[in-house]
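The step that takes the researchers longest sounds almost clerical: writing a folded protein down as plain text. The outcome of that step, for a single protein, is printed below.
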Amino acid sequence: MPSAELIQYAGAALFALAVLHTFSTKFFDHLSHAHPRHAGLFHLLGEVEAVFGFWAMVLILFMAATADLNTAIGYLERQNLTEPLFVFVILVMAGTRPILHLARRLVDWIAAALPLAPSLAYYVTCLTLVPLLGSIITEPAAMTLAALLLRDRYYSQPISPRLKYATLAVLLVNVSIGGVLTPYAAPPVLMVAAKWGWDFSFMLAMFGWKAVLAVVINAAGAAWLFRRELAGLAVPSTNADQQSMPALVITIHLLFLAGVVFFNHHPVVFFGLFLFFLGFTEAYKKYQDTLMLREGLMVAFFLAGLVILGSQQQWWLQPLLAGMDATVLFFGATALTAITDNAALTYLGSLVEGLSDTAKYALVAGAVAGGGLTVIANAPNPAGFAILKGSFDEESISPLGLFACALPPTIVAMLCFLLL
């Protein structure tokens, strides 16, 4: 068998193993507690963020062994790792104390206007306003902010596992669909918007209002289902230091954040801005908490592994998409998104010649609707996992548990995109 064909088959097999591995992380975390002697190894294998990076390394070693080292290095150099770098930078910047301070003030202000109990109002606002802000500040930033706000307000309290999983599921789904009001914020939309001529007015008319409706229904449904537990939670006291934040510091952080979002296609620019940002945070340490560098690097490692492995799936995935009509494509895209990154899915779909406008809509709508089903379904999802997983038993999130809880909000999103 030619080495190129062998590598394709190996890439597909390793991708399948990586997907199975993501559904087995809780098992490895359990082993780390049951066998302390090898806890380090089992804990590493149980890190969701390490899964795809590990199997991508296996693929590169396989390439080097079956072809040669130059082939493996050349393959790595051809991969576009802009998105993992961008998510790393935006996660660290959006997770700083000044940005969180501003987000809390905004959420508090909106929640106070709702005719609900404080805990219910804050919960609904976090799961509606922040995901929809993802259409402006990008989905990775929205995921980071929402996960941190939910962690500090709810996951830091002794809430039930059902509430933890349901909240995370709604967050992932709502962030995935909440970024489609604009053509640049959601990765699966960004992959096709320029090629297909989808501008702001098109996104609002074809996707935006449907996404808003689905986001509100999902958040309201979760709040109603857990209304008694949420209403009984205490309102955490606010540290005085967290309340005092100079407007100038917040403004400078927002300018850095805006610059990174604006230059999100140019890593040499946004990473340069990030280095200046690190210098600023070091100069004004008293206004900062510990930066989320480890969490950001792990998420970037996950996404980079997904890119490296995902590039080997074009040979079977693209013909599969080309053979579907619009309705089948919608359901197929939703299902395939659960086991492949939705941005990679829409990118491969954009390479299919002769797609009708209906098929294009079906592909993207299905991809964003299914973006909350698994950790690999949408690029910002690993950020939410990294922030919230410490609040779950054994610091591990069950992929099957998440999948089950994500089905209802996913179906709501599907119905809104398919029937309206």
In short: The CA atoms of residues 339 and 377 lie 6 Å apart. The radius of gyration is 21 Å. The chain has two domains: 3-81, 83-419. The chain is about 75% helix and 0% strand.
